[in-house]
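#struct-queue
[09:14] JT: dropping the first one here, sequence first, then the structure tokens:
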Amino acid sequence: MQIKIKKLVETAVIPSYAKEGDAGMDLTATCFFVDENGCAVFGTGLSFEIPKGYVGLLFPRSSISQKKYHLTNSVGVIDSGYRGEVMFKFKPTMIFTNNAVSIEGSEFEYMVGDRIGQVIIIPHPEIEFLESDELSETDRGMGGYGSTGN
């Protein structure tokens, strides 16, 4: 599948797969700023033309587990109609201990030129919800968090 991509700045890096069989393509930071909420925002200098019926999903790289930040919206969504710059926004990690909260990460550990996230482009069906008074029975039923026993 081919997807049109536009470089918004000369230093933008066209995403590519790091290894054969990878699902996500790495995105590289071309700019950095801290927003009014204290979030670290990285631009990629890229804009995509994702076809109707597809969605781009933005994920942090696994190296984020070694950093003191997390992606603010967990998974970013690039809708097919969006033509703006693809950006990543990170917040400092909050640590919860003994009913207290502390915030880690006074300096951001990614820099312009680093691979900061991944994009996966997948098809999605158009959904129409059908209201019903009854749903089918399953083994799990209404069991929620931890209901599988492990």
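[09:21] JT: and here's the second one, same format:
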Amino acid sequence: MVQGRRPSEEQPTDGLSIGSVVLGALGMIAWCIPLCGCPVSIVGLVLGIQAYLKGNRTLGVVGIVLCSLGLALTLINAAIGAYMGVTGQHPLVQLLRGRMP
């Protein structure tokens, strides 16, 4: 007898876990623009947590990790942009002041 899982014992893949992984992958791209990266990562993180709690542990954890990493990168990018804007180093601030190099 072949040992392994029976088809009835396999973890179900549901839309929550797949959505979380897809949004996590998109969040890894969207972190460059914080206005896009933040909502994508937060929604994916919520979906990943819901999938994890419903029993789809593997894809739920993958979605949670990807979305957490995307959210961290988004927040770091937003903080750097805010710092550069406040100190006047950001190119858009220089353009508005008419001092573009």
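[09:30] RK: nice, looked through the second one.
[09:31] RK: The mean pLDDT is 86.
[09:31] JT: good to know. The first helix runs from residue 15 to 30.
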